[in-house]
Amino acid sequence: MCFGCSERNPIGLKLKFTMDGDKCRTEFVAGEEHQGWNGYMHGGLIAALMDETMAWWLWFKDISIMTAEMTTRYSLGVPVNIKLTVESWCEEEKRDRLFFMAARIILPDGKVPVTAKAKFLRIDPEKL
Ligand SMILES: CCCCCCCCCC(=O)SCCNC(=O)CCNC(=O)[C@H](O)C(C)(C)COP(=O)(O)OP(=O)(O)OC[C@H]1O[C@@H](n2cnc3c(N)ncnc32)[C@H](O)[C@@H]1OP(=O)(O)O
């Protein structure tokens, strides 16, 4: 019952993903229950949105992974109650095992308040 994408997780984000060319995308509207500071989305949840969108890029290609490392750059606050677009893509792959991924959040006016980079390692799907 994934916190990011399961329809059955009662407190989950219930994200749905699509692949468009080399990008994986989802949309999300944060509510007041997702706030940190008043009116702004909690940074940990922003990271979760991006982690999940990068993981799904790999999942669409049938690659089972774990996040091994992630860096998030918060340049602007992310307001609640507006539609966010989250995009991810793969920047590099090493030995068919280590995937260098990137993601960004896009606001309705085109501003990019947060970007992330992460390393994902392929794991044996039987271990999931
Ligand atoms: C339906 C779809 C649902 C999708 C849901 C996705 C959920 C979102 C994704 C997540 O949030 S996953 C949860 C958060 N992540 C974790 O809990 C991961 C915890 N860590 C682990 O399980 C292991 O450390 C890991 C699987 C990442 C790696 O363990 P391994 O035993 O497979 O690897 P090992 O430590 O032996 O390292 C293998 C190689 O990778 C290298 N490596 C490990 N960590 C690295 C790193 N951070 N950066 C670069 N290289 C790294 C390591 O040096 C080594 O290089 P060599 O092969 O050359 O020796």
Automatic annotation (TrEMBL):
Reactions it catalyzes: decanoyl-CoA + H2O = decanoate + CoA + H(+); (9Z)-octadecenoyl-CoA + H2O = (9Z)-octadecenoate + CoA + H(+); tetradecanoyl-CoA + H2O = tetradecanoate + CoA + H(+); (5Z,8Z,11Z,14Z)-eicosatetraenoyl-CoA + H2O = (5Z,8Z,11Z,14Z)-eicosatetraenoate + CoA + H(+)
Location (main, coarse): membrane
Cellular component GO terms held in the UniProt record: cytoplasm; membrane
Metal-binding keyword on record: no
Tree of life domain: Bacteria
A Gene Ontology biological process term: fatty acid metabolic process
The Thioesterase domain, residue ranges: 38-100
Membrane topology qualifier: Peripheral membrane protein
GO molecular function list: hydrolase activity
Enzyme Commission number(s) of this protein: 3.1.2.2
Keywords of this entry: Apoptosis, Cell membrane, Cell projection, Cytoplasm, Fatty acid metabolism, Hydrolase, Lipid metabolism, Membrane, Transit peptide
Name of the top EC class for this enzyme: hydrolase
Coiled-coil stretches: none
Compartment annotation: Cell projection, Ruffle membrane; Cytoplasm; Membrane
One Pfam family here: 4HBT
UniProt record similarity statement: Belongs to the THEM4/THEM5 thioesterase family.
Stated name of the protein: Acyl-coenzyme A thioesterase THEM4
